[in-house]
Structure formats: structure tokens, C-alpha cells
Design a protein that fits this description.
Blueprint (H helix, E strand, L loop, with lengths): L4 H9 L2 H14 L3 E7 L9 E6 L3 H17 L7 E5 L4 E5 L3 E6 L1 H7 L1 H4 L4 E6 L1
Helix pairs in contact: 2-3
């Protein structure tokens, strides 16, 4: 799913931290679990922030995906550059360029251990 040029223009006006915080707010509203916002600006040239959270069920992962996609599109006019995975697989990655959202089933979150891999990132927000 590619963003149009008008979406890229809007994207550039929104600070990455503001996008990440709005995504965290949506995840909180949808009862996402163990939410972490990691600042990776000093560690990676690929992205500025990771938003990581768990969903208790396939249905909840689907609701989180839909809510984030809807809010970013309708409220911010921003589309993800790409979406990988799906709720039935237990993991979803939403790539917004400067912000990458990781939605996991709890057991896959433990398996992939992104917080451990990126432990040198600064935790901006943690909501358990």
C-alpha cells in the first residue's frame, strides 16, 4: 500500500513523536496491553520510533490494526507505507516511515523480544 504524494506532504508536517503518541493513545483506547514507545533515533537510520504492544486475542489484534489505520488516515491524513502480517499470524507490522508499529500476540512478542534487541533505545512511554 503506497502513500500518495499528498499524504507524503502531510506526513512531513507531523512530527514523528506526535504521530507515535497519537498511535499510543489509540492503542490505549482499544485496550492494547503492555504498550511501549521506544526512541530509536540514536540507534537506527531506518526509523525514529517503535510502538510495541500486545493484543490478548486475534480479534483484539484486528481491532488494534483497524483503529490505528483509521485514526491515522482520517484524523491525520497519513497512510502506512506498508503493512506486514495479520491478526491470525499473531503479529502485525505497520510502517509509517518514522514510526513503526508492532502488534503482537503475547507469545510471539516474547519470542521476537524487540525490547531486548533494541534495549539501548530510550523508553518514552510504557503502559502496562
Amino acid at each position: 500500500m503506497e502513500a500518495s504524494s499528498s499524504d507524503r506532504v502531510r506526513r512531513s508536517k507531523l512530527e514523528p513523536i506526535d504521530l507515535a503518541r497519537k498511535i499510543v493513545d489509540v492503542i490505549v483506547d482499544k485496550k492494547g496491553e503492555d504498550i511501549v514507545l521506544l526512541d530509536l533515533r540514536d540507534l537506527s537510520t531506518l526509523t525514529d520510533y517503535f510502538v510495541i504492544c500486545s493484543g490478548a486475542s486475534e480479534r483484539q489484534l484486528g481491532a488494534l490494526l483497524a483503529a490505528v489505520r483509521e485514526m491515522t488516515k482520517k484524523s491525520l491524513g497519513v497512510l502506512p507505507l506498508n503493512i506486514e502480517g495479520d491478526p491470525s499470524a499473531g503479529w502485525i507490522l505497520m510502517d509509517y516511515g518514522s514510526v513503526v508499529v508492532h502488534l503482537f500476540a503475547p507469545e510471539l512478542r516474547v519470542y521476537y523480544d524487540l525490547e531486548g534487541l533494541w534495549r539501548d533505545g530510550r523508553i518514552v512511554v510504557r503502559i502496562q
